[in-house]
Amino acid sequence: MKPSAVSAAVDRRWLLPLAVGSALSLLLLVLLTTFPLPFPSSAASRSPSLFVEHKLAPSPSSSSASLPRLAFLISGSAGDAGALRRVLLALYHPRNLYILHLDAEAPDSDRAELSADLASHPVIAAAGNVRVVDRANLVTYRGPTMVANTLHAAAAFLWTDAGKGDPEWDWFINLSASDYPLITQDDLIHVFSKLPRGLNFIDHTSDIGWKEYQRAKPVIIDPGLYMKKKADVFWIPQRRSVPTAFKLFTGSAWMTLSRPFVEYCIWGWDNLPRTVLMYYANFISSPEGYFHTVVCNADEFKNTTVNHDLHYISWDNPPKQHPHYLTVEDLDRMVASDAPFARKFHADDLVLDKIDEEILSRGPDMLTPGGWCAGTRENGSDPCSVIGNTTLLRPGHGAVRLQRLMTSLLSEEKFRPRQCK
User: Does 2 fall in a domain?
Assistant: First the structure.
């Protein structure tokens, strides 16, 4: 991606992977295999000869000796432009890739101003790794439009044009303007460099309980699919039975997905992702079920799940539609959770300043420091105003906490027993 291409120029091409994938499903018959190892490799047992064109085969995982690259989707709505920018600066690393999406409820001027601001940022413009979606989608959390927007961004990250597209990446992470990191990107990249590239961090369960009656059996229509203004979903009087062709799973809408699984969701070489997507088009809160149901019904991926969303979230018991907003009083519990992210936050809440100062060592309106920062701190200068060696990491206390969480999640007691049951 060229440095000047901060504002997404690929929007008109985002439907290409889905169109090609639909045609591909008529041509291919692929045998899916399970991962036999405790910590499966994303490259296990896929042969390019199974695909009509080599470019349509799932990409091999990066070398285990190389540092991973992360692809972030950060989403917001009307009034979120400032919060979106702050989250980006806190999450920024020149190696990573970022798509920012302000949904169609936000005025076009917000997107234009955000694009212009990032285009004028010396580091972000030089790295050319941030795109702002200028043709925005309308997103309503209760309907399927959030799933569609997530797939939209995933397809954009996968898109290439004669080798001129984005660099290879290893994990796709979806966040919102009300999320915030609890560790630096050096911490995150350092710990993820030790993990198998095929792992999918997705909170999931098949014990859907009350959701069967209140979400699976009703049929809803999301006006966000065809209207220009947001409106709540409306309900069809008839109810439906629970599907028998696949098993329903539910969980958190926030996930960290491997590139092989994201490619599967886009290309859908055995058609399961599209079949499940059509079902969830009429499902209440489909972001809490679509990817979970796909990954747990696909033999190739059901043994790759780590049952955690990598977030600290404070819920009511039983949970309501939305979690509590976090404040300074929650900071110690956030850190003690060892999670790399937390939500929800009010924009510019005091607790974000505390996280910047005490955890990220980030000054106001500055990027989070890392080993790549080659500038000086003299006279209050931002050391991250100059890009140095992007493979140089300086992990800190956050890496210790995240490694502790990973050790627990991948333990014999928690990894296999908590997968797709």
Answer: no
